[in-house]
Amino acid sequence: MSTIYLVTGGARSGKSGYAQHLCEYLSPKPIYLATSKVFDNDEDFAKRVLKHQEERGEEWTTIEEHLEPSKHLEKLKGQVVMVDCLTLWLTNWMMKEGLFSLDGTKTEETADSGVQDASERALKKIEQEFDKLTEPWNCTFVFVTNELGSGTHPHDHTSRKFVDAQGWFAQYVAKRSKYVIHMVCGCPNVLKGPPSAPGPFSPTLSLAVSNSGGLASPTIDEANRADMLNHYLSKRDIAMDPKGYFKLKIDTEKNVIQASYHSCIINEKGDFFDLDGNRLHCHGKSPEPIKVWSARTAKELTMQVLEHWEMAAKVVSVGHGSYLGREAQKAETALYSGKTYRQD
User: Fold this and answer.
1) Is residue 224 part of a domain?
2) pTM > 0.85: yes or no
3) Cα(197)–Cα(26) distance, rounded to whole angstroms?
4) Which residue, 192, 223, 252, sits at the end of a domain?
5) Residue 217 lies in a domain
């Protein structure tokens, strides 16, 4: 089954913006699955759609599907997909089942007891479609929905049934989600999942396992002792790798960690050479890098270096690899917490 994030919140709470940044954090080429219909007589909504389109960069691929997004499963396989939004998706199914017409008025069927039947049919069908969309593939879905239940009580029976159905559907999705994030005034509040949800607005925090088996944040005293231990261990004697070394830094504008590998191979004249014996140009006292990487997380960086670099097995020792992992994690924490990163 796919990994599911649910981002909920009221109007202008920042939910779509958070979901967009989260997808960009998780993938360099996310997919935007739009469930909304833009009607000719709704200029305000058309402007909002255009604004969202302009905010998404060229790295985004947009798919428009109002009822059955599972039709596009082949395109979504293995991708990070933002579905915006569940409320409008449900609206489309409600319209299809006759709960109300295009202009929002009641239909003949729903003017009486048919409201309940239409609402239940729409809810059942959208839940079935949700399962078809999320169960078969190894995708990451970020669903956006509106928190309607906290607003004004609807004045008519049809509207109340819609709010009820939307609430039930949100619960259905939340039960199947790894993370549920509630947005208030642009601030994310993690309702389900680890206390620090991954993403551009939350640093990666270390968690200590409590005696009860649950997760608990480390105390200030524990954190200080850990810092003291790490500082002590950094003072140990370390033999320089004779082949080369890594340099790491963070780019806060691009929100990435950058790493480069530099050669230590030098002749009696002071000339630097790469791993194949080719002379390297030097800028000051440092040789130009043999290889440069850019990644959004420590895991992505270490995978690029240790799993995908063809020279890794020849030049990176076990100790050097563990050092790279530690430094990459430090860099990630600094990047997303707004702190300064200093390589050890």
Assistant:
1) no
2) no
3) 12
4) 192
5) no
